[in-house]
Specification:
The chain is α/β, with parallel strands linked by helices and 116 residues long. It is built from four helices and five strands.
Length: 116
């Protein structure tokens, strides 16, 4: 059996109630795993990390939001801002896994189509 080796974890940033891990994913992608709560106080950190990953790694971003316990409109705005930046750069940003609260937010706002 053969396996594919990827780069190791490229870093995790943690602030109160939020942890963001960046790692290489399948070829041509970066996997971003987010844990905790995304709100007005920390959404800008998420946005900055996503924008940095887009510009530094020139890859598609795969977002794992399965361990998010809360996400407000500031978090949604950060995701949509980064999606727009990815499109301008000729790349994409996709949510590959999401918690029930994130799915509900995407469904209520009609943004699921853009981010999944």
């Amino acid at each position: 059996m053969t396996g594919i080796m990827y780069e190791t974890d490229l870093g995790t940033t943690t602030v109160e109630d939020l942890a963001i891990g960046v790692e290489a994913g399948p070829p041509g992608t970066m996997r971003i795993r987010v844990r905790g709560e995304i709100d007005f106080d920390n959404a800008s950190l998420l946005r900055d990390i996503l924008l940095t990953a887009l510009s530094a790694h020139r890859r598609t971003l795969l977002l794992d939001l399965e361990q998010i316990s809360f996400c407000d409109c500031a978090g949604l705005n950060a995701l949509l801002t980064c999606r727009a930046a990815a499109l301008r750069a000729g790349r994409s940003l996709r949510i590959t896994a999401a918690s029930p609260c994130v799915w509900r937010l995407l469904q209520l706002t009609g943004c699921g189509y853009f981010l999944t």
